[in-house]
Design goal:
alpha/beta, 6-stranded mixed sheet, two-stranded antiparallel sheet, 22 helices, 10 strands
Length: about 575
């Protein structure tokens, strides 16, 4: 992220300012000489130097305006701490995390850290818990301002509680200054610094170094105080220079308020990047804007900073009726796939091969009870997963206790489902037999026939379900955010599903293996692709999402970080999130 940041295009040492009055110091009021508020730190002072000078139990708050370079300052501090830890393994381990993820569950900071260490860095729970309890970490926490506004004060309280009980853990927190000042709570930290805007001399020096391409912009910035203030952060100076490179004076923003000026700047930047030379034109302007706007809105809605294709959820569907349709579609597809694969493998493989797809399209298949079985199992699956998020199988750990509890619960559940299934089958037999034998007698006969077999079927189904659930639940899913390829989680799920089916087929047979494979990693993959197909049909995303995201990165809207994508800055993310979705399709 640091290497690809637009901040690095403006290579200046950012000025720092003392702002210790904005933190609640542990020894507040006991200093012999209190620091002057707003005091400029000596030129060339870095955040690393400030952090080192604090001493044992160092804690620091980094504040700044949007785009001022807070995250870059944090990451440069991380670089220096990593180098120190590499040279001396007795030093604490620096870890970078984003506080916006805390708001998802709002647990204690200690528990959240253990979870994040597993999710982000792949450490096991026991090791992460040891690191936290023995205070062997340096926590570099970005994005306090990205926590949902209704949870920010609670997040500060949780951080203060953690600091009280882990006094030797070194912590750095990052936030926009205005969002932090609006909070009623204050962090109990030792020091705070403010990343100062660029000076007039720095802005002029950057524009001068660009040569003739920014002559008009340089002249406008000297004459327009609002434009100069807008360009006073490294990010905004980079965006201004990219948006108004080789432009005429008529193209420069002339609006009433700084907010409208910023909006016009981003609009100009977007249009210039859409026409950027050196990249192929794969999509139309309307497609790019529509898809980026939808992505921005959903990322803001779910408080995401890094977008991962496999983390798309049914909540991305705006209306309840859309989510209901998605649940029905995914459940029925899984049920039908189960029956088709099961029949094809057991006794219909060669007819399908010989007749091809014509076999699958025969009208007689609509009368086949196995298709009804597939629909029934699909409806049962809907009741289990309709309210759950899609969780890919990326990394797994075995838990005997979870497996045992799941076996007991699913044995009972299998008996209940068996009875329900017997009623459904009995009703079908009864309705079909009622035409020839009388409706009442046919219905009674069908129900008795269905119920007589449902107890045995339910017991067998419960045992199979208990075994399958034990395997599925015993294998604990670990969702890791450190990915190297787009949609890596879904492809991992498919691999695990195939591996499950292959291994279990040799142990317990194809029926159980297919069931476990589909309910395990297979169901996550099917639900994911069903969701993407629905969003594609609605015009919200392209068919090949990864290719589009790579193209957006080439156009300097996004950055590719591992297997995920981030907007070049949160301000651009917020700009797209405020735009209106067009009605353009595909």
């Amino acid at each position: 992220m640091l290497e690809k940041s637009l901040h690095t295009k403006v290579m200046f040492e950012l000025g720092l300012e003392e702002r210790s009055s904005l933190v609640q110091k542990p020894l507040s009021g006991m200093e012999e000489f209190a620091a002057d508020e707003g005091q400029m730190l000596p030129e060339g002072t870095t955040a690393s130097k400030v952090f080192e000078d604090i001493g044992t139990g160092r804690t620091l708050l980094i504040l700044g305006e949007p785009g001022a370079g807070k995250t870059v300052t944090l990451l440069k501090l991380a670089q220096s701490l990593i180098t120190r830890s590499e040279n001396d393994l007795s030093q604490p381990l620096p870890v970078v995390m984003n506080l916006s993820f805390w708001a998802e569950q709002r647990k204690s900071i200690a528990d959240w850290l253990v979870q994040e260490l597993g999710d982000v860095y792949g450490s096991n729970k026991a090791l992460g818990k040891t690191w936290v309890e023995q205070e062997q970490l340096i926590l570099l926490l970005d994005g306090l301002d990205e926590v949902d506004v209704k949870y920010r004060n609670a997040c500060v309280k949780a951080l203060n509680q953690f600091i009280d009980t882990h006094g030797l853990t070194e912590i750095v927190v990052c936030s926009r200054i205005r969002d932090y000042e609006a909070l009623s709570e204050r962090l109990n930290l030792r020091s705070a610094i403010y990343v100062r805007p660029l000076t007039t001399q720095q802005i002029d020096q950057f524009l001068e170094s660009a040569g003739k391409s920014l002559v008009v912009l340089k002249r406008a910035i000297k004459q327009n105080a609002d434009l100069r203030e807008l360009a006073s952060s490294p990010l905004m100076l980079s965006i201004v220079s990219l948006a108004y490179q080789d432009c005429t004076e008529e193209a420069l923003p002339v609006v009433e308020t700084p907010e409208k000026q910023r909006q016009q700047l981003f609009n100009t930047y977007v249009e210039r990047m859409l026409m950027r030379r050196g990249t192929t034109q794969q999509y139309t302007r309307d497609q790019m804007l529509n898809w980026l706007t939808f992505l921005g809105k959903r990322m803001v809605q779910t408080s995401q900073t890094v977008f991962l294709i496999e983390r798309m959820q049914p909540s991305w569907l705006q209306f309840r009726i859309q989510r209901i349709r998605f649940c029905l579609e995914s459940g029925l597809i899984i049920g039908v796939i189960y029956e088709l694969l099961n029949n094809a493998a057991l006794r219909r493989f060669w007819p399908i091969v010989s007749d091809g797809l014509i076999y699958l399209g025969r009208i007689s298949m609509l009368r086949d009870m196995e298709l009804m079985n597939g629909l029934t199992w699909g409806l049962i699956y809907i009741s289990l997963t309709s309210i759950r998020d899609i969780k890919p199988f990326e990394k797994m750990r075995w838990s005997w206790s979870s497996a045992k509890n799941a076996c007991y619960l699913w044995l009972i559940y299998g008996l209940v489902v068996g009875l329900i299934y017997g009623l459904v089958v009995g009703l079908i037999y009864g309705l079909s037999g009622g035409l020839s034998n009388g409706f009442i007698s046919g219905l009674i006969g069908g129900l008795s026939r269905g119920l007589s077999s449902s107890l045995i079927g339910g017991l067998i189904g419960g045992l199979i379900g208990g075994l399958g659930a034990g395997v599925i639940v015993g294998v604990q899913i670990v969702d890791i955010t450190k990915r190297f390829k787009p949609n890596q989680g879904i492809w991992k799920s498919i691999q695990y599903a195939l591996a499950f089916m292959l291994i279990l087929t040799l142990i317990v047979g194809w029926h159980i293996a297919l069931f476990i494979g589909l309910i395990g990693g297979g169901s996550a993959s099917i639900r994911h692709f069903t969701l993407r197909f629905r969003l594609y049909r609605m015009g919200h995303i392209p068919w090949n999402y990864a290719r589009f995201l790579d193209h957006a990165a080439d156009r300097l809207f996004l950055q590719k970080v591992g297997g995920g994508y981030i907007f070049i800055h949160r301000m651009l993310l917020e700009h797209f999130a405020q735009m209106e979705l067009s009605e353009a399709k595909k």
